[in-house]
Specification:
Radius of gyration: 24 Å
Strand order of the largest sheet: 11-10-9-5-4-3-13-12
Shape: globular
InterPro entries: GH (IPR017853), GH13_cat_dom (IPR006047), O16G_dom_2 (IPR045857)
Family: Belongs to the glycosyl hydrolase 13 family.
Distance between the termini: 17 Å
Strand content: 15-25%
Protein name: Alpha-glucosidase
């Protein structure tokens, strides 16, 4: 592999320069707080990640995406950033982060970090300065401070709706104790929105990108990427359909100039530093705009992740996704879950196996066996699709969603729903590594409680079980890397029945997923490369098989072990 040596202070970081690495990469999402605890305090940290890099190498991933690791009051799991140029002391130090980036690269694993452009923490120095400076000050112009409506300014400036339910404006208090201006926050009050019309905001974020690219980071994931720009007139939300680009705080056209600036920064560096957007949009044409050659490299495909266990729904989503990306030449991304979404091993075992934030409720019945079977089948289905693959930590172990006691839940989505929504902490429970009881080798007493029946889900238990979900993921990733058709072959649909998703990649590879209730015959093939469930003469329900139509000699070379 060709390399570029990047000098940073007294240390040397070697950056790989293989072109287009991100187009078919396998990227593993690390929620640091819950991955592995290196110092025994019950909170995951960078020391824990560094100690487990060998595990990630054995899994076969190309990159690690870290959720925010910056100093934060954790009002929203770290997405309320207090300082972008440091590491939260609960996780480690900046020196440790630099060491981790370099050590991961030595294993052939790149690092992607989270950037949150829409808002900051209310403890960030900019916001503290804005509060202290008062109305009309330059410091307040970096945010959305505004007088209230009504005779005494008691009414919020807009009727905009929070992503976390509840109000989007909070009123300040003047030094003399009287009510002051209001400030905008599309999420929690602890996350004041930035004003992207201000040059300081643009300049600061481009400098932050350079700060981390200088330290060897290979890319950034852009949180809530369609939200940062607001209409300065602060209009009311329209009651009917909203014209493209006319929403007061979503998907505004001005965003694209911002991301072109970010792309220009990324392109200053060798080794292809990538921009990955979190873009939740229904409009395919508007979505594709973010992926033009001078903007983001890729964006998350949430449409597929939210589909029910239905051949028609999933195939339609795959077709739609590939069609959205084709005009701009960008690769699709495939993901089954993340730190916000109910884990697939639970979701697919429910009567409603789709996902929507507003439908999450306590006590939803789940068929755990069916959910596990379908999650394994879905893992192979997504790994066979053209584009990049994201794996949320623990899905490779088949971890289920945990329904936590209300008193331990920390997620603001739960609290701002009045306790109706169980929130997102159920997919953030610390990972089980070894042993028969909690903390299952995680470290100290976990910050969120682990179930008492996770012994079979530990890495230790699955290492010795060749039928485990961990082994399934390892084999799938190794085959994905070694079979030429899975990296270069186009997708061609095969018609094997209404409840079957089947397609050919290239000349010799076929993936078949049975989403129906009865077994289906497999097409003629030379070899079964991998299957999510035991096979007889046919493919059982809720399972996927990868087939070779003839001998594939290239499998003997290039697989990452």
């Amino acid at each position: 592999m060709d390399t570029e040596v990047l000098m940073k202070n007294a240390s040397t970081v070697t950056m790989p320069t293989d072109a287009g690495w991100w187009r078919d990469a396998v990227i593993y999402q690390v929620y640091v707080r819950s991955f592995a605890d290196g110092n025994g305090d019950g909170t995951g940290d960078l020391a824990g990640v560094r100690a487990r890099l060998g595990y990630l190498k054995d899994l076969g991933v190309d990159a690690i995406w870290f959720n925010p690791w910056y100093p934060s009051p954790l009002a929203d799991g770290g997405y309320d950033v207090q300082d972008y140029r440091d590491i939260d002391p609960r996780f480690g130090t900046l020196d440790e982060a630099e060491q981790l980036i370099a050590e991961a690269l030595a294993f052939g694993i790149r690092t992607i970090i989270d950037i949150v452009p829409n808002h900051l923490s209310d403890q960030h120095q900019w916001f503290r300065q804005a509060l202290a400076a008062g109305p009309g000050s330059p410091e307040r112009e970096r945010f959305w401070f505004h007088p209230g409506l009504g005779e005494n300014g008691d009414e919020m400036p807009t009727d905009w709706v929070s992503s976390f339910q509840g109000d989007t404006w909070t009123r300040t208090t003047n030094p003399d104790g009287t009510p002051g201006e209001w400030y905008l926050h599309l999420f929690t009050p602890e996350q004041p929105d930035l004003n992207w019309n201000h040059p300081d905001v643009r300049r600061e974020h481009e400098d932050i990108l350079r700060f981390w690219f200088d330290r060897g980071v290979a890319g950034v994931r852009i949180d809530s990427a369609a939200l940062p720009v607001k209409d300065p007139a602060l209009p009311a939300l329209p009651s009917g359909a909203i014209a493209p680009g006319a929403h007061p705080h979503l998907d505004r056209d001005e965003l694209h100039d911002i991301y072109r600036g970010w792309r220009a920064v990324a392109d200053e560096y060798q080794g292809e530093r990538v921009l990955v957007g979190e873009v939740w949009l229904d409009d395919a044409e508007r979505f594709a705009r973010y992926l033009r050659p001078d903007e983001m490299h890729t964006a998350f495909n949430f449409d597929f992740m939210t589909q029910p266990w239905s051949a028609q729904a999933m195939r339609s989503s795959i077709t739609r996704t590939l069609a959205e990306h084709a005009p701009v030449g960008a690769p699709a991304t495939w993901v089954l879950s993340n730190h916000d979404v109910t884990r697939p091993a639970t979701r697919y075992g429910r009567a409603d196996s789709s996902f929507a934030f507003d439908r999450k409720r306590f006590g939803t019945p789940t068929d755990a066996v069916r959910g596990q079977r379908r999650a394994r089948a879905a893992a192979l289905l997504t790994a066979a699709l053209p584009g990049s693959l994201y794996i949320y930590q623990g899905d490779e172990l088949g971890l289920p969603e945990v329904e936590l006691p209300r008193e331990v839940i920390q997620d603001p989505m739960h609290h701002r729903s009045g306790g109706v929504d169980p929130g997102r902490d159920g997919c953030r429970v610390p990972l089980p590594w070894a042993g028969a009881r909690t903390p299952y080798g995680f470290g100290g007493e976990p910050w969120l409680p682990q179930p008492g029946d996770w012994e079979s889900f530990t890495v230790e238990a699955q290492e010795t079980d060749p039928t485990s979900t961990l082994h399934l993921y390892r084999r799938a990733i190794a085959l994905r890397r070694s079979i030429r058709d899975l990296t270069a072959g186009a997708l061609e649909w095969l018609e094997l029945g209404a409840d079957v998703i089947a397609f050919r990649r290239g000349d010799d590879f076929v993936s078949v997923t049975n989403l129906g209730g009865t077994a289906v015959p497999l097409p003629a093939h030379h070899e079964v490369l991998l299957s999510s469930a035991p096979l007889d003469a046919a493919l059982p329900p809720d399972s996927t098989a990868w087939l070779a139509l003839r001998d594939l000699p290239e499998r003997s070379a290039g697989a990452k072990q």
